[in-house]
Design a protein that fits this description.
Structural class: alpha/beta
CATH superfamily of the domain at 52-204: Glycosidases
Strand order of the largest sheet: 1-2-3-4-5
Radius of gyration: 17 Å
Strand content: 5-15%
CATH topology of the domain at 52-204: TIM Barrel
Helix content: 25-40%
Number of strands: 5
Number of helices: 7
Amino acid sequence: MSSDGYGAGPLRNARSSRRLLTALVVTALVALAGLVVSASPANAATRQLRGMNWAVLGDNFSTGTLVVQGLSQSDSNATVRAKANAIYDDMASTMGVNTVRLPINTHTVANTTWWNAYRGAIDAATDRGFKVILAYWEDGAASGGRITNIAAWNTMWSSVTNTYGSNGNVYFEPMNEPHGYASADWRNVAANWLSYHTSAVPGRVLIGGTGYSQDLRDV
C-alpha cells in the first residue's frame, strides 16, 4: 500500500474511494442557504446546487486543525487533489452531486502547510466546475455556538476571501449554526462580516439562520 493510503490498481482505488464515501453526508444545500444580509439585500444563487458535506470523522467542532475523513495531515496538495477527485468522480456519477461543502476553522487556515495542502480539495472541485461552500465551524463545541476569537476569525476569512473571492465557484458561509447568538446579535455579526470582507461577492455569501441555521425569518 502506498504512503497516501491507496493500494495499487484500479480495483483497490475504487474500493478505497467507496470506503471514503461512507463518511460523506449528502444534503440538500438549498436548506443551508440563507439570505445575504446587506444594505441592498441579494439572494445567493443556490437553486442549482446539489451537494454533500465532506466532514471530519465524528464532527467538525475542533480546537485544532480540521482534516476531513479520508485525508491525512501528512498529505501533499497533489495527494489531496487525487483523493478528492476520486470522491468527486463517484459522487457525481452515482448521485449527480455538483457541490461540496468543506469545513474550515482558524487553526486550519493558520497552519500554512496544511492549508496549502487542503486547498487541493477546493481546487480539485472548482477545476471540474463544482461549486464549493467554505463554512466556518466554531473552534470547539465548548464555545457554545459563538465565534471563539473574532480577530482570528476575521484573519482567517480575510485569507480565504482574498484567495477565492474572485472564483465564481466558491461560496462563503461565515458560520455554521450560530446558535449562541440572539437574532439581533447574529445579524450584526453577519453585517460586519460583509462590510469587512469586501473580496467576497455578496451573491456568493450564505448567511445561516439563527439557532441551528434553521430560522431564516430575521435574516
